[in-house]
Amino acid sequence: MSAPLLATASPLAVNVLDAQSLLGAFGVLGVGVVLFAETGLLVGFFLPGDSLLFTAGLLCTSSSATGVHLSLAPLLIMAVAGTLTGSQCGYLIGRKAGGTLLARSRSARLHEGAQRAEELLGRYGFAKAIVLARFVPVVRTVLNPMAGALGVPARSFTLWQVAGGVLWTVGLTLGGYALGSSIPNVDHYLLPVVALIVALSLLPLLTEVLRSRRAAAGRRSGAGE
């Protein structure tokens, strides 16, 4: 099946949790929309940002046999634009609405992400926290409105979200592109490759959870002495 046919597939048949399905239906435009939603709107916390970028980069290579071929330059432009505008939108929502939107959500995963985001801001400061959050699923969604609600200066937020956003989007996209260019027919193993990327993206979150638990255990131990 040709790429144009895939690009015009019915949106009703699209699995929004599957990177290849999204790319086949919407191409680079879908990348920008998904990244905007994931980084700017709390409802987008479940979207596959890491795997989407990596898969999109892989599908820019001529070795891909999936029937979907993307152009690298438009992909990078759309990915960066979606990420940066989404993050800025999330920050502005946080400044205006405070924690109201988050308080209304019943998602335990979303609230856990908000807690991690607040801990990152407190532990590492604005610059490092905003850049690190890009690489942690869910946290990158909630940190932007949290930064706005907590009064992070707009100039500092904008500077570091741009730095982190470009590093995240370009890094993962070029990583997929490099892998697809160096290994023939790597897309035949796309599922395990994407699973590995998702697992690696969760490592920072796991590290933070373990560190928080050790710190809490240390405080309890100190209080019991």
From TrEMBL:
<dbReference type="InterPro" id="IPR032818">
    <property type="entry name" value="DedA-like"/>
</dbReference>
<feature type="domain" description="VTT">
    <location>
        <begin position="48"/>
        <end position="177"/>
    </location>
</feature>
<feature type="transmembrane region" description="Helical">
    <location>
        <begin position="157"/>
        <end position="177"/>
    </location>
</feature>
<feature type="transmembrane region" description="Helical">
    <location>
        <begin position="189"/>
        <end position="210"/>
    </location>
</feature>
<feature type="transmembrane region" description="Helical">
    <location>
        <begin position="29"/>
        <end position="47"/>
    </location>
</feature>
<feature type="transmembrane region" description="Helical">
    <location>
        <begin position="76"/>
        <end position="94"/>
    </location>
</feature>
<keyword id="KW-1133">Transmembrane helix</keyword>
<protein>
    <submittedName>
        <fullName>Membrane protein</fullName>
    </submittedName>
</protein>
<comment type="similarity">
    <text>Belongs to the DedA family.</text>
</comment>
<dbReference type="InterPro" id="IPR032816">
    <property type="entry name" value="VTT_dom"/>
</dbReference>
<dbReference type="Pfam" id="PF09335">
    <property type="entry name" value="VTT_dom"/>
</dbReference>
<keyword id="KW-0472">Membrane</keyword>
<keyword id="KW-1003">Cell membrane</keyword>
<keyword id="KW-0812">Transmembrane</keyword>
<dbReference type="GO" id="GO:0005886">
    <property type="term" value="C:plasma membrane"/>
</dbReference>
